[in-house]
Amino acid sequence: MRIVVVAPSRHPLGQPHPGGLEAAVWDRVAHLRRRGHHVQLVAAEGSDFLRNSPAAFRLPPTRWPAGSSSDTDYPPGYLELAQDALDRALHHLSRRSEEVDVVENHSLHALPLRWAPRLGIPVVTTLHTPPIEDMVEAIHAAGTALGPVLAVSSHTARSWLERGVHARVLPNAVDAARWQFGPGGPDLVWFGRIVPEKGPDVAIRAARLLGRRLVLAGRVGDVEYAERAIRPHLGDDVVHLGSLHQRDLARLVGSSACALVTPMWDEPFGLVLAEALCTGTPVAAFDRGGVSEVVAGSPGARLVAPGDVEALAAAVAAIEGPSSEVRRRIREHATRRFSLERQLDAVEAIHRTAMVTDPSWETAVSA
């Protein structure tokens, strides 16, 4: 198939991955290409996979003043530039609709949804976040002319359904070949974006209740929060390694005793859970959002009430340090549930169905 993937535009797609959303889309593009599909990318300049894409598909990169990056805001004036560039990319795509079979939309902007009824190409949209008002309005405005809508978890699907948006659940997946089995080790690990809603400060408190060393890995997405809540606690017993290449991150997680997952918001999916379990490393986590779906049935997971630090520490003590045999069972269960190959089979089937039934063809022709 000839596929155009519209990526989230806040960060380039590449290593080290800035977050789970970007990691999931990166894997999708890489493996669709590996399966022989012709995949082009609409993404921020500096992304991997742009070599075979038209220049019009290259969006401006986010350029932050030193020490001021954010996962909730943009540099002054950037959002307008990015949206203008995305609008031009979609206009370029609409003029070459006969060259593309399907569009995969992973953007957090409403523009691809607004363009969908007039592109003349089926658009398959994946919802990765809680409802975003502009996107909700655009989906309702598109009506029956919009292509398939997917959600990364049942929790995410329900949250959008409350806003009248119906989505089929297609969970995220993990490339088990890249998240390989690990031997475990003495330290606890926390990995993800360093932002308040991910709660790394809570993980620090739990590790200290246990008297255990904690290794943090991840990009700082909220500088003020990191300076206030994380930096003062760094030392021999709390280490922050920053952003790691996926290979190095998998090695770190696989050589840890237990992964702490501490969402302070309703997690849409929680890719770090699946990644840790694929290495055989057990997880202790707050039960928020889609977390319970991800760990369901795993022999290597303990969930506790959100925000209960003492319960989290007790869960770590109960589950950490399993034998090599148990770690292998943890991995086997995770790799079955989060098989990337099985997800791609489903994606291909959805795309082929959309190509046959896409309602935007009729809209485009009548226009």
TrEMBL record:
UniProt key word Disulfide bond: no
Keyword presence, Glycosyltransferase: yes
Gene Ontology MF terms in the entry: glycosyltransferase activity
Database matches in Gene3D superfamilies: Glycogen Phosphorylase B (3.40.50.2000)
A GO BP annotation: carbohydrate derivative biosynthetic process
Domain Glycosyltransferase subfamily 4-like N-terminal: 18-178
Keywords: Glycosyltransferase, Transferase
InterPro entries for this protein: Glyco_trans_1, Glyco_trans_4-like_N, Glycosyltransferase_grp1
Domain Glycosyl transferase family positions: 184-336
Record PANTHER family: SULFOQUINOVOSYL TRANSFERASE SQD2
Identification of the protein by name: D-inositol 3-phosphate glycosyltransferase
